[in-house]
Design brief:
Number of domains: 1
Order of helices and strands: HEEEEHHHHHHH
Radius of gyration: 22 Å
Number of helices: 8
Distance between the termini: 55 Å
Largest sheet: 2 strands, antiparallel
Strand content: under 5%
Number of strands: 4
Mean pLDDT: 87
Structural class: mainly alpha
Low-confidence stretches: none
């Protein structure tokens, strides 16, 4: 039991906080649910409180809120084009949710829900289904030309079409695994080096230095993974709106 408690993977254990069952479905409120709620509350507080004064000369908080808005707005404009404005609220919400979820995971004794494949795959699948429905609604049957690159000879179709379909269907897998794997690996590595600090006692200075350096790196990765998840969503949306 003690070994399991101090295992680097014990930090990813799902724990029931409020048991709930709906028929045969386990709908319990867990530590993962708690930190998702805290993430939404944090985002709301950051944006609402940051913009409450609407000052002409913004303070630091308002500046951060405005910069986050401008950052995603420019990303959408550059990757999707003017048609992407309609979907800005959704893309902005994705970025903030992943970013704040990653940052909450950096708080000691918290829970990093973005390190669970069930969470990241659910988000990726939602994005994948959403952009596919957008593409079908806009292009109708013409959408299926996406799987046959323009200018390719027809005799190559039996080879290229299956490759394009597999590549398209793998999008939610690659999108979810990238976020999940990076967060899982980073938190595991931090826990391993932190264990060395305690076990080595006075000789734990070197592992402590690694922990400090890795912590700084993890904050950078927390932002980068939110950025990557969001920009890939924008690219998928671009493909849905413009095809090739």
């Amino acid at each position: 039991m003690s070994a399991e408690k101090h295992s680097p993977l014990s930090q990813f254990e799902i724990k029931q906080l409020i048991p709930m069952e709906i028929g045969d479905l386990d709908a319990s409120f867990t530590n993962s649910s708690l930190f998702m709620v805290l993430t939404v509350i944090s985002i709301s507080a950051f944006l609402v409180l940051g913009m409450r004064k609407h000052a002409h000369v913004p303070g630091r908080w308002q500046s951060m809120a405005e910069l986050s808005y401008i950052f995603i707005a420019n990303m959408v404009k550059d990757t999707v084009g003017n048609e992407g404005r309609t979907y800005f609220p959704f893309i902005f919400s994705i970025f903030m949710f992943v970013l704040f979820g990653n940052l909450w995971g950096m708080v000691p004794y918290s829970f990093a829900f973005t390190s669970h494949i069930a969470v990241t795959f659910s988000m990726a699948a939602f994005v994948f289904i959403g952009v596919t429905l957008i593409a079908l609604a806009k292009h109708k049957m013409h959408f299926f030309t996406f799987f046959m690159p323009p200018g390719v000879p027809m005799y190559m179709a039996p080879l290229l079409i299956p490759i394009e379909i597999i590549s398209y269907l793998s999008r939610p897998i690659s999108l979810s695994v990238r976020l999940f794997a990076n967060m899982l690996a980073g938190h595991t590595l931090l826990k391993v080096f932190a264990g060395f600090v305690i076990s080595l006692g006075a000789f734990g200075v070197l592992p402590l230095a690694f922990v400090i350096a890795l912590t700084g790196l993890e904050f950078v990765i927390a932002f980068l993974q939110a950025f990557v998840f969001t920009i890939l969503t924008c690219l998928y949306l671009h493909d849905a709106l413009h095809l090739h």
